[in-house]
Amino acid sequence: MFTRTIKSSLVEVRGLVADVITFLDRHTRNVCLCQRAEIVLAELLNNIVEHAYGNAETGSIAFHAILSEAGLGITVRDTGRPMPGNSLPDGVRPAADGPVSSLPEGGFGWFLLHSLAQDLRYERQQQTNVTFCMLDISQPDNPE
Amino acid sequence: MAITKSVHGEILVARVEDSRIDAAGAVSFKDEMVALMSEPQKRVVLDLQNVEFLDSSGLGAVVAVMKAYGAEMTLELAALNPIVEKVLRLTRMDKVFRIHSSADTALAA
Questions:
Q1: pLDDT in the model for residue A14
Q2: In chain B, which residues touch A (CB < 8 A)?
Q3: Looking at the complex, does the CB of residue A54 fall below 8 Å from at least one CB of chain B?
Q4: What is the H or E stretch that residue A130 is in?
């Protein structure tokens, strides 16, 4: 089990992600799982810093992860703004064709989350955002 | 963000010295790379051999640099580590950039 509360800052997210990956690597030695986890954690937590708290570094983010034989279960709580419409953004891949001038510069985050995490869920509980996801240990590396 | 520049004839190689291009470093990365437009070279190879991690913000910044270069300069990528390669492949951005196995390979291409 890994539990920590951090300030809502991109630099603190970096530190937390690094420590979770060290923990995960030590307990699983599963390189693919660690790579997926690093992307998922960074996207999930940076989204909270940038959107739920609007880059105000006054909020806090409570992170909780449980490692089991099935994989890594992640629960993140924050008290920032709710998700628009109280639901998760969808995970449509931004269009990568067309002229360079029309290429997307954003929208990759939720696509990566939906691609790499399993059982991604979100709830607004009173004033708290609760986001949950699972990283299955057996998930193939290339979900395409 | 620390970026080391080296000129090889018509090609400018920009090697990122940091190990991450993530949300905390994306703006600084983009600013440094867009500033290269004042250089005379028209072909920029972004050497990512030191970069172990790229997230969606970092990817957005790489795309933004290419868009800023427009028709004036080309941006190519070299030496992708596993997570960088994975993020580019999943988002299909691996089809958008010319990708080289290393900066040396890019110079010979």
A1: 95
A2: 20, 22-24, 53, 55-57, 59-61, 63-64, 66-67, 70, 82-83, 86-87, 89-93, 95-96
A3: no
A4: strand A128-136
